[in-house]
Write a structure and sequence with these properties.
Two copies of one chain form a homodimer. Chain A has twelve helices and eleven strands. The first copy, chain A, is α/β, with parallel strands linked by helices and about 350 residues long. Chain A has three domains: about 45 residues, Orthogonal Bundle (434 Repressor (Amino-terminal Domain)); about 130 residues, Response regulator (Rossmann fold), CATH 3.40.50; about 140 residues, Rossmann fold (3-Layer(aba) Sandwich). The longest helix of chain A is centred in the C-terminal third of the chain and has 17 residues. The structure holds a DNA duplex (16 and 16 nucleotides).
DNA sequence: TTGAAAGCGCTAACAA
DNA sequence: TTGTTAGCGCTTTCAA
């Protein structure tokens, strides 16, 4: 049996109050008494029970984080960052992902419920499966939340996201500047707000320049490489082999772009010589594939940092600096080239 | 203020003991009484405090998981699997990663300490930075641990890993069969036991066939794509441009292999025409890059599953089936070709 | 089948 | 600067 604060107090010959004071470091204690208590702690190998402490202080000093999954380049970066920010203020996180049931929205609801049961001081939420209303409802019951990677109308003050519409515009401009006027798209899931925003930005900018994307040139994926591969295959099947009726392909994230490039290559199409490809996110692999991927960088880590700090400020009365704008940025590498240079 | 079990009991007109019984579902309660309590729970929106419950039951019903980081394809898969296994038995996990200080070993020690403070019922550990002795020491203090992806001498019964020596042998055989006799290696960190095991297996098999790998053909990376790129560049710089003094390259994981292929391609070298490349792990991207990567599949998810089940059995007196062997497997795709066919 | 009461290990108010 | 004590919200005997 692990020893308790009582054992420590007894061994040190002090009251539990005193022992508690030296353990937590708050409250006046005579240096010499403190030393005696420390000694007792040492010899007993005492570790305070965080549960008991939490019960009495009514806080576990922890924030809950929901992500749909742990896999993938995107969510890992988020968790990494949140963990670091919390460590800086001596707090920590508990995570939930997925859930018992099949439906993504239900899973998210489930995960959030789990987190609330764990009595977190606040919640960081990342999910494109939740409805805006789900989030509004949750916020009404529990205002200490921060929403990542989407902007929920009415909840702007707790939402943190890069401007994905701008990201989409950046991608479109890049293609337009390179002279592309026939483009295809591998989209993310259509219920994902961030995907929709970047798609709108992309399409709007193209439209303003007079270029339309026929709907048969738009295929929907789910952000995984496997879906990118399937989408590219579908595109090829639909549009016949060379010559392709488009000169550029926009993919809603880098993993899908990488997979798409591999099916293009397998079909004998060279990127960017035969076809330009632009990705989105600037994931860890983007710079390390061939050809290096031109993409729109979304610094999701920075977004997570800002969200975490804001939530820390609200939950723990801190005043960490928070920047609300994390702008997307075009990263020119090798997968897009001028159409007339082809 | 959230309502407590007392409120529920009062509203339902029963004692807290009774309320507790219906909440936990254990112990005899008259159906009609139970209904009344349920009603009270509903109207109060009562949620039991998991902290208080834990304090009294002396278990949070949770396992701790340490991973060096959340990023990367490998660790995500591990967390995903562990989470699922735990959910199956109505338990959950708390994770820790990295730590405050720079040194990976200290970080791991730190993270483990954090987990122990959180009063987990058991620990799942993944770290190649820890010394065997660290783990043995920990096990002496806390036997409810499971070690992932390495075998610690003396701790075999709590260690779960694919046979990386065999994995290395598989890679070597694949190359040998394809007629390669001059090979280069991009290794993982030399303190990583799994890396060492696969390297030994690889080198031994090669050696048995009479092929030696000169030390200047071995470059060390750290498993990241960026390090794979740097390693490949170093290899190229060291061995001059074409013709390369080796016909095959073994990379200690797929992300490094993918990055290496991209620098080879940038240097005008074609894989597999000019050079065969074999990876390791079979990460999510391996099948979706060009050329599709021939690699040794390590089903780390399966390893994590087995470890988790074993730990569940030990911590919660369950009897879930545990398979100890998760064999590595060669996955032939396109990045290796016969040398004489080149 | 129920209620009362004694903890679980800690914090914090209060008295000394 | 200390020790004592009353909670924190729940589970679990033990009687009734």
């Amino acid at each position: 049996m692990a020893s308790t604060i009582k054992d420590v107090a007894r061994l040190a010959g002090v009251g539990v109050g005193t022992a508690s004071r030296v353990i937590s470091g708050k409250g006046p204690v005579a240096p010499e008494t403190a030393a005696r208590v420390q000694q007792a702690i040492q010899t007993l190998g005492f570790r305070p029970s965080s549960i008991a402490r939490a019960l009495s202080r009514k806080s576990l000093d922890m924030l809950g984080v929901y992500v749909p999954q742990y896999q993938g380049l995107f969510h890992g970066a988020v968790l990494e960052t949140i963990g670091r920010e919390l460590r800086d203020v001596d707090r920590h996180m508990v995570t939930a992902s997925g859930g018992a049931c099949g439906d993504a929205r239900l899973q998210a609801l489930d995960g959030i419920d789990f987190l609330r049961q764990r009595e977190c001081d606040g919640l960081l939420l990342m999910s494109h499966a939740l409805h805006d209303d789900d989030l509004r409802q949750l916020h009404a019951q529990m205002p200490q939340i921060a929403v990542l990677n989407r902007i929920v109308p009415g909840l702007e003050s707790v939402c943190f996201s890069s401007d994905h519409a701008l990201g989409g515009r950046l991608a479109a401009q890049c293609l337009l500047e390179a002279g592309h006027r026939e483009v295809a798209i591998i989209s993310g899931p259509h219920h994902a707000p961030d995907n929709e925003a970047r798609l709108h930005g992309f399409l709007d900018t193209l439209g303003a320049a007079g270029v339309r994307v026929p709907s048969e040139h738009i295929i929907t994926g789910d952000f995984t490489p496997a879906s990118g591969r399937a989408a590219a295959e579908a595109l090829l099947a639909r549009c016949g082999p060379a010559p392709l009726p488009f000169s550029a392909l926009f993919c809603a994230n880098d993993p899908m772009a990488i997979a798409a490039i591999s099916v293009l290559a397998a079909a004998g199409l060279r990127v960017p010589e035969d076809l330009s490809v632009i990705g989105y996110d600037d994931c860890e692999f983007a710079a390390h594939v061939w050809p290096a991927l031109t993409t729109v960088r979304i610094d999701i880590g920075a977004v997570a940092t800002q969200a975490t700090r804001d939530l820390i400020n609200r939950c723990y009365g801190r005043d960490r600096p928070v920047i609300r704008d994390v702008a997307p940025e075009l990263v020119r590498r090798q997968s897009v080239r001028r159409v007339d240079a082809a």
